[in-house]
Amino acid sequence: MKKNSTGLRVRLPALIFALEVVIVVLYVVFVTYDDSANAVLQNNQTKPMENSLYQNYSVFADIQVMIFIGFGCLLAFFRRYGFGGMVFNFLTATFAIQWAILFQGFFQFYHDGKIHLGVMNLINAEFACAVVLISFGAVLGKTSPVQLLVMAMLEIPVFAITEWAVLKYLKINDAGGSILIHLFACYFGLGVTFVLYRPNLNVGHPKEATSYQSDLLSVMGTLFLWVFWPSFNSALTLKGDDQHRAVLHTFIGLSASTITAFALSTILSKNGKISMADVQNVTLAGGVTVGASVDMMISPGAAYALGIVGCIACMLGYKYLSPFLARRLRIQDQCGIHNLHGLTGLISSLAGICAILLATEETYGPSLYQTFSYRAPMEGDPQLEELRKLIPDLEAGLGRSAQEQALFQVAAVIGTIAASAVGGFLTGAILKLPYLASPTDENCFDDELFFDVPQEYDQQEVWSPVLKDTCKTDVE
User: Fold this and answer.
1) Phi, psi (5° rounding) for residue 383?
2) How does pLDDT run across 443-466, given as a tens digit for each residue?
3) Is residue 119 within a helix (H) or strand (E), and if so which, with residue range?
4) Which residues have a Cβ under 8 Å from the Cβ of 462 and sit 6 or more positions away?
5) For labelling alongside 224, which of 43, 213, 253, 444 has CA 20 to 30 A away?
């Protein structure tokens, strides 16, 4: 029997064309080129190879691979929802980047009346897009493309405002985005899924099953994310030794979490075999747990330990915490983002605070005040002039102590979680509106509802809320 399309013929095109009109108008009125892309500012003294494009394009391209291939393949682990996982990721990511350029540039516009667009703006927009895609994981298979676009449309402004407030007023160190990307995305997504709670799905759903091919595709996404994660963590660090450390620490953390995941997967499984869900998700934990301290002098051994600790927390979260949240707290976290991004983000934030408290000139030399720029002396302080003899381009800071900076980090963690959870809750309330084409419980995790599927598509399963024992989820 052919399934109802839930009214996408009108609703999806209407929403997309309306958004495109708004974006075109706003781009025409407010967006211009930055200095590196503006032909008017080029002359015979311009050195083309010094253009910022050549410094940043490789990182931009790496993050593009993570966004469109890594996330896309990773989300295609359901046997009957591979199209939805990859294609809705494609749709949502493309829109989110377009939308983020405007909202992240708003505060630039506030100062000079224009949003100056360059490759670094695109990288920042990609980070905002990653926030949306992580949150998407919490409601995977249970939302329509219309709902996902509305979710991105609402999440980007909340994220941009939170990011601006935290960076402008709290002024924190968060090179790898553990606070502003992973924690924000996690608790926003949990807020949304809390409101969109479906009690019938707690007893399981046969279409949540994976297949040999879908698991292979999902692992391919994991490998793309794994390989390019050093670019993600190092993109916004200071060029030079800070960025070098970020690449080293990310690789070490990922390596540690990967081999630990294989060990824990066999220990915790009922039959002593490796779970593909663990390979797809838990192996990535180390990339998050080193994020907040990724550019600091934490030592390679500490990065390795963080990878192990993050892996353990993530694994235990999948095995025990996710089922508890679904049964007791009405939080159906479909992809376990609380484990891979929430728990590990909290561990990373704590590690970053410890690294800030332990940072001294003995370990960093004068570069202490570059890595921790807000600890640099204020303008007019004689110490600043002495430091500038060693580092001529050193910028004035706020003169914070290590303890003061650590307190601001704590405030950022609390504030980010609160803002994201409230934003997610309100967004979830909007997504519950009846005309956003939400799938029924029976039609969740099913491509046939939204796509023309090939003839070999399996149509044998019939949904029933009592088929608990026949279901397999990604966390079992």
Assistant:
1) -65, -35
2) 999 999 999 988 777 654 545 555
3) helix 119-136
4) none
5) 444
* Dihedral of alpha carbons 192, 198, 203, 204, sign: negative
1 within a domain of the structure (yes/no): no
Partners of 117 in beta bridges: 33
Q: Distance between CA 68 and CA 189 in Å, rounded?
A: 19
Residue 251 falls inside a structural domain: yes
Percent of the chain with pLDDT over 70: 93
Burial class of residue 454, CB neighbours in 10 A (0-12, 13-18, 19+): exposed
Helix (H, G, I), strand (E, B) or coil at 234: helix
CATH number assigned to the domain comprising residue 138: 1.10.3430.10
Q: How far apart are CA 207 and CA 204, in angstroms?
A: 9
Cα atoms found within 13 Å of the Cα of residue 52, Cβ hemisphere only: 15
Residue 32 forms beta bridges with which residues?
A: 116
Strand partners, 31: 115
99: closest CA among 9, 26, 204, 175? Answer: 26
Domain, as residue range, for 100 = 8-39+51-439
What's the whole-model pTM score?
0.93
Domain-located, residue 151: yes
Domain total for the chain? Answer: 1
SS3 assignment, position 250? helix
Distance of CA 117 to the CA centre of its chain: 22
Distance CA 172, CA 349 (A): 11
Burial of 238 (0-12, 13-18, 19+ CB in 10 A): middle
- Identify whether the C-beta of residue 373 lies closer than 8 Å to the C-beta of residue 170: no
